[in-house]
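Here is one chain, start to finish.
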Amino acid sequence: MSRDQPFVRNWRDQQPANSHGAIGWKILTERGEGKPYALSPLIGLHGLTFRMLQAGMVEPAHTHEAKEHVYYIIRGRGKVQLGDARHDVADGDAVYMPARGVHGIINDSDDFIDHLVISAIPHWARNGSPGTDLDRGCVDPVIRNWRDDPPRLSHGAFGWSILAAKEQFRERTYEQAPLEGFHGMTMHLMAAGRSEAVHAHADKEQVYYFTEGRGRLVLGDETVNVRDGDAAYIPPGTPHGLINDGREWIQHLILSALIQS
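Its structure:
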């Protein structure tokens, strides 16, 4: 597969591995020397992993010096440790953890917690600056659920902005826009029989991650089937559009990162 081509990859396509005490599947990672493009196409985002933490298990609390994370809870409920505090989380919650923030996940329920781990390198780390707390402003963790705000119409679907970039959305509160490493994270719900007009973003890399439903996705010159667990990688400038030709709603996250030309 040539570089800068869109494609779809499902977490079920690969073998699982241990990931901080959970069962993990690395879906997409950042480009690097020697890495195949079909596994590592990302330019602005650092990684996307699907994980399942079984009942009674705990991810040990840890930190990353120059990497921010978002845990998105797809199914299940439990707790997250953020610093010295523990907070309840359930499906639809997005947990933002800034670089250097202590974090971990605790499954005190009777079932698995299915969740995504989205990682990005803060702009100050990519630029080689020390990124002091004084330079970065507020660096507290945030927990937001897409249901916290009213919906808006977005490309033929209902959309909710969950998290956005601090630098690009200065008019928003810190809780709405804490991101330092990528542009945004939104939830979209598309009703049966609806479609998204084909469009492109010249300066933006996107990943559509499907959490519920089935449909078809225009990717460049092709139209492919998509289902829950699929991650569609959309390079900058790639025409794309979603089609819901089924009888159920399609629910999908859109992860965006700005790419400088």
